[in-house]
Automatic annotation (TrEMBL), chain A:
It is an enzyme of class 2 (transferase). It comes from the Bacteria. It holds the Pfam family ACT_AHAS_ss. This is Acetolactate synthase small subunit. It comes from Heliobacterium modesticaldum (strain ATCC 51547 / Ice1).
Amino acid sequence: MRHTIAVLVENRPGVLVHIAGLIARRAFNIESITAGYTEEADVTRITIVVEGDNRNLEQVVNQLSKLVDVIKIVELTAEPSIERELALIKVKARPETRSDIVDIVEIFRAKIVDVNRETMVIELTGEETKIDALCEVLADHGIVEMVRTGKVALSRKPGAAKDSE
Amino acid sequence: MKMTGAQAIVTSLEKEGVELIFGYPGGQVLPLYDALYDCKLRHVLTRHEQGAAHAADGYARATGKVGVCFATSGPGATNLITGIATAYMDSVPMVCITGQVPLSVIGKDSFQEADITGITAPITKHNYLVKNAKDLPRVIKEAFYIARTGRPGPVVIDVPKCLMTTTIDFEYPETVRLRGYKPQAEGKAAEVEAVAQALAEAKKPLFFVGGGVINAEAAPLLRRIVKTHRIPLIGSLMGLGAIPVTDPLFLGMVGMHGTVAANRAVMECDLLVGIGVRFDDRVTGLLTRFAANARVAHFDIDRAEVNKNVVADLAVVGDLRWSLAALESAMADLAGEGGRRWEDWRLQVTRWSEEAPLSYQKSDDVIKPQSVIEEIDRQTKSEAVIVTDVGQHQMWAAQYYRFQRPRSFITSGGLGTMGYGLPAAIGAQMGQPNKSVVLISGDGSFLMNCQELATAVEHRLPLKMAILNNNVLGMVRQWQKLFFNQRYSYTRFANGGTDYVRLAEAFGATGLRAERPEEMPEVIAKALATEGPVVMDIRVCADENVLPMVPAGAPLDQMINGEVK
């Protein structure tokens, strides 16, 4: 099973490497990892998606908790939460196929953020499955290259992760 | 007060109560060594940085204090790695301060530059690359706090040379503020109650004692509980000494080279209470069969140990001084019984101990290695601090020395580091100058750090070193014999061996040799009576196996030379 965990860490150099290294060393598989600033300047929030059973997850969480720079860990899979990913997709777009692509973009509520003679760049934010679906449709036109951010997630509960038990 | 970064480091160490530093100077720590030149801290110059790390480790294990070592950047720091990893695996509190190239040239592949915080990340509890001289006092304060609290472990502080010469306003912080690090001293009372309840219901309870009991200084508490309730115990290698091994309730070491009684008790108990243990694979054998008939309760300060290897039905996370005291209270109702409810079980397991004690074939023709340990035990009245290297001699020491006290057995358990013994013994002897410290080593292990004889001689340490010299890498040879069709690939020192008496003399130590069984007790007696460091070259027979033995990955009831059905 895949688990999404939010890890609040001290915003110090090397922390991301430390966390990724620990997960890899303990032979857990990282599906995605993203990091960025939070409402507090000295705190970085890292969202990690790992694959494994509940016992694996318990080990990941317990081992990460031991790192001195880790302030808090919340498993977001265990509670109602909003999960999003951003993708930029460069797709082949000849004049005769452009309108078809524009239709697809509208249906998915994506955005065209760049166009040139041969390609278009499409931006989509959404759940992973939605991005997968768009990619599948666009594949018929030929995807030149693509970048995905990996998942970020936020609990729907009123409080903040940093204040949770 | 204004001072340089180097002086700030030294002053901070004084504030932490450090008495002894093991280290080796070099280019990027020159300013730090300059500051050492006129301060009260005592520094011991080892002959290799690895020796400094192991010595700091041995000092920490023997005293319970934080061991401290210094090394320079690059190769100096990388030479510490094995020592740091050894300390990490056995939860030993250490602070290692390494020099680093100046900030302006970090990342330029400068002379003697190595990314030491990167390299040590997996083998430290925490590490620092200090980038601002004014952070030095805070970092050192935090490092000592992290090293000794919670589950102890090594901390590395990497200090660029330019910081050591920068002048700062020195102020030593009173407190530590680390929002991501809060060692949990007290657990949940309800969890302890549940274990007490399980004990009351159990017909065949068994305590399994590990190094955590010694780290937590919780052995007196454990002894009191055992005295009241008379529950049988087994120990891990690291747990030896927590309970006197001569206590009839103590069934011995468990695992690969454990006693028949200990391994059999694990297979038959109905409640196994692990106390400060991590259920290492050398202990459990085949995990799915380990304690298969038992519920498992696990006491540990490290939550990550719970369910890591063995799934615990009950767990108490907290400092053992808290949790064992809580267990004692929770079991108060049963105290009046004096353990009578478990009498049948107790009789059964102590009978196994009597029926299948550790044994070996005695000989008048060759010196049996086990007999050397027995003789050292007899002559030191079971009161010495025993330090070992790694291999057959280590297991025989664990099996045949009758440890009475915590911190009397110092050995590399988790990492199994050959070459650990001599420098660790130096550290232990310096930490416990009034105790008799005896190193038990093998010829393979001894040669890995024998240069530290020079350190022992320089400080006139009363260290006694027994080399069980069989001219082979005994443990590897044992595995080749048992599992590789006696194909002895590169485990014999084919040059006829090293003359350890002359080696000792070359370093300025005393060298003694025993070749015949009748000479051995005399040589040990003479060594113990001789001042200063003494090396005993004891020529033991090569063809001896450590038994009993559970082959790697087999269940604990499949013992070679252990009559367990």
